[in-house]
Amino acid sequence: MANPRQSNRAISGRPRPSGTPGLSSDRLEVEQQRLITANVSPAAIPIILAARRPSTAHIYDSTWKSFLRWATKHHLDPSSISVVQLVDFLQEGFASGLSPNTLRRQVAALSSVLSFGPEVPLSKEPLIRAFLQGATNLRPPVIHRFPTWDLNKVLTSLTKPPFEPLQEVNFKFLSFKVSFLVAITSARRISELASLSVRSDLCIFHTDRVVLRLDPAFIPKVNSTFHRSQELILPNFCPHPRHRLEKVWHTLDVRRALKVYLSRTSSFRRTEALFISFQPSTMGARVSSSTVGRWLRATIATAYESQSLPVP
């Protein structure tokens, strides 16, 4: 059982240097002040602050702003919040429908700017641990049952209109087909697909395959030398078709599809990123990983619709 006195200890933060009550709304500024207080050298601080991925930093910033709004609403000084009060913040989030995983991310975010000391991270506080465990027991993770789809049905559709002939189809269906073929032959994350490049040293065509490499500026989910240096080696498929069926299969050749894609998009390409927008307002610009994801889902939907099948 947690010690009541311990649970009511104030969480330490770094007040704004101007003397204004509370903490800065800029989480990065608060974290920087904590590092300064800990006597971390000025040269090391920006390196430490760069430890998190941009997406993680965005989540942390959003959580911090939400926490400050909550503290203001309850007339609390965020620089002297107790564990009990922090549990109240988590409770309000739980009552509003936040999942236990989201609450854990909130604790991780607040740990970057609030703590009891270097030896007691927020996630290890008994009351917080008990609350998160209770939240998980009361609201266990939902098991998502995604609709299944048949790869053979999609591949069959990719050999016919509206995805063929590849030299004539509009850029939307060209983009759908090429991104889908690269996705299924590489089995890579969507974020990695969006970071592929057409630079000559990152997109290399051989007679029997095409080798794709990640943009050096891209930070993968697992940021290691091994993961950053991995190549996508995509072999060709029925390169010399003779019979009717082989000619059909050759339309699924990812090397052929990439060749056509690069040729047809060269006139309006505005970036070295492999996948580019076909929308008039952003024609030729780099697309995000979420857009590539939408293309893949749209490919499956279009494939089913073209065969008069219910879309999964």
TrEMBL record:
Alphabetically ordered keywords of this record: DNA-binding
Protein name, entry field: Uncharacterized protein LOC117675183
InterPro entries: CB (IPR044068), Integrase_recombinase_N (IPR010998)
Domain Core-binding (CB): 38-118
Biased composition (Polar residues): 1-10
Provenance organism: Pantherophis guttatus (Corn snake)
Name of the coding gene: LOC117675183
GO molecular-function term, one example from the UniProt record: DNA binding
DNA-binding found in the keyword field: yes
Segments for region (Disordered): 1-27
SUPFAM superfamilies: lambda integrase-like, N-terminal domain
